Amino acid sequence: MKTTAVIMAGGRGERFWPKSRVERPKQFLSLTSDGRTMIQKTVDRLESLVQPEDIFVVTNESYAGLVKEQLAQIPGENILLEPAARNTAPCIGLAAAVIRKKYGDAIMMVLPSDHLIKFNQMFVDTLKTAISAAEKGSGLVTIGITPTYPETGYGYIHFGDGSGQPGVYNVRRFVEKPNIELAKEYYNSGEYLWNSGMFVWKASSIVTNLKKHLPDMTEGMQRIYDAAGTESFREIVAEEFPKFRSESIDFGVMEKASEVYTIPGNFGWDDVGSWLALERINRTNEYGNMIQGDVICINTSNTIVCGGKKLIATVGVENLVVVDTDDALLICAKDSTQDVKKVIENLKICNRNELV
Amino acid sequence: MKTTAVIMAGGRGERFWPKSRVERPKQFLSLTSDGRTMIQKTVDRLESLVQPEDIFVVTNESYAGLVKEQLAQIPGENILLEPAARNTAPCIGLAAAVIRKKYGDAIMMVLPSDHLIKFNQMFVDTLKTAISAAEKGSGLVTIGITPTYPETGYGYIHFGDGSGQPGVYNVRRFVEKPNIELAKEYYNSGEYLWNSGMFVWKASSIVTNLKKHLPDMTEGMQRIYDAAGTESFREIVAEEFPKFRSESIDFGVMEKASEVYTIPGNFGWDDVGSWLALERINRTNEYGNMIQGDVICINTSNTIVCGGKKLIATVGVENLVVVDTDDALLICAKDSTQDVKKVIENLKICNRNELV
Q1: Residue B236 phi/psi, 5° resolution?
Q2: Which parts of chain A sit beneath pLDDT 70?
Q3: Which of A296, A302, A351 to mutate to test the interface with B (most CBs of B within 10 A)?
Q4: A108 and A80 fall within a common domain
Q5: Given pLDDT bands bounded at 50, 70 and 90, which one contains residue B283?
Q6: Residue A281: predicted pLDDT
Q7: What number is the ipTM of this complex?
Q8: Helix/strand/coil for B128
Q9: What residues in A contact B317, CB-CB < 8 Å?
Q10: Which residue among B8, B202, B263, B297 is least enclosed by CB atoms within 10 Å?
Q11: Which region holds residue A316: left if phi is over 0, alpha if psi is between -120 and 50, else beta?
């Protein structure tokens, strides 16, 4: 069966402000020393699995230019533009409609565009196992991540018995982000994986499940399917897509579906959820500092500095995040990175949209 | 007797980096909201006491342009250029030579160019008392500051009995910067004042004392005196001045002279010794933050932010000093402002003199 990839690239993530902006969110930034952006690295990783013409990118209309610029190898018609942000379920439904129309049926690997993976070959091998599991029937396969500490920022997958295929397990349930006590319980139990938001299934399997669990999407999706590959496609999407309820694929489908499998992956996954990720994904020096740019550190420890064009000197500080850009500078305590969004709210209230 | 003012403006203070640079040290910066520079405010304060043509500025050759630009009212010949940095004793000797040659004798008010004073009228009144005391004989008068806490960064003046003139006291001795225990002793005793580095005397009185206590300067100073007001003045200064030993007036003369008086001043004096001064001399908000420029503070307290051209957002931080300029940014813990000089040392070692 044909294998396709669906890259979800509509996120407007605010957690990398001031480097990320509404105009250029995280997936279009390079946060690693190789200069490749997150979405470029996402596509690079799939090289041995799919042809560029079988990669689909679902994104916001305003990011069409960035996608074309950064992923020139992907055919323009594979860039699917959402006229409104409706979370992952409608996004995946849209891609499934287009893929079914084009190929009849095909394997869809659904992947976020803004995560990092350290061990590419292990990742590819995990996806191969997932493809093979998805091909066998009509199940939904999700890639789980072996947890390395009790993280409270991720959802978890409670997995059960083996499915028969080695490395593939039945999913007992999906659970929301836990508090720290629960996270410790999950972590210690050995029965939980992190929910990575990466899925593999047949287009037909997810469509069956979308119809069953989100029936109010069915009619609109049928119209989109009918229009796919025709001149009226954009028009119909513009008409139908905004009518969909905003719904995540996890909550809308995965938590309710009956035939769900998970494949535990252990390939150095990082969701790069905040500036703190930079010290995980880049090298820190002997003082625990992660430094990019022209920086002089005096008595500085455990600090992240992303310099811009000017010299930055830090003196006697610790546990800070400093990010300098041409028009905005962030100085944030490491334990307050979640509050960066308050800066953005403040800017919006003051109509300073050029800085958001 | 004619009253003159001698403004000492040769300092290369590094403690306001990155706003101050070797090319433009603190006295030529504005650190207050009125936009006047420190040296301009120094001269402004003297308006009711001396005419501009009786104000002399002693500075480094490289600052001649800045002095002329910022103090256009002062005659060019009153700007005395030191060909080398030799601390305050040779600086004052140079001014005394020029003033004696021009006026025979005159009162000299010797004033630093980089301090701030809150209560101008009280300051002027204190200087008037000092002038009157200096005119009476050949004594050296120093302005002491009533201490408000046990500061360890200043020298102290141990004062004794009244001199006969109200508000004028005999000096028992000058003492160097104390440790905190001694500073507390001085502060609690009620017998000590802060040494402000402001002096009032007759030119003849200080020349007599320079001859007595720094005799190796005598010959050079005589040559400078002889050349003052002639075409060979600059040449002779260039020849003689660099030969002087580097010596402070406090250590070289005041600590040894016999007829020394002090006048306690209580006029809101601040030596603006580091970035921390900004929160004393400017208004802080309800969170204890001193903010200049375009700044958004989220959960930020007791922090000093001197913005430049871009937005600065601080999140979850406290007790920081943030100073942004076009080509350098400082982020410094408040208790580490003395270490800013290490940044400058580092820049010098790396030959990055454009940033020093």
Answers
A1: -65, -40
A2: none
A3: A296
A4: yes
A5: confident
A6: 86
A7: 0.86
A8: helix
A9: 320, 331-333, 336
A10: B297
A11: left
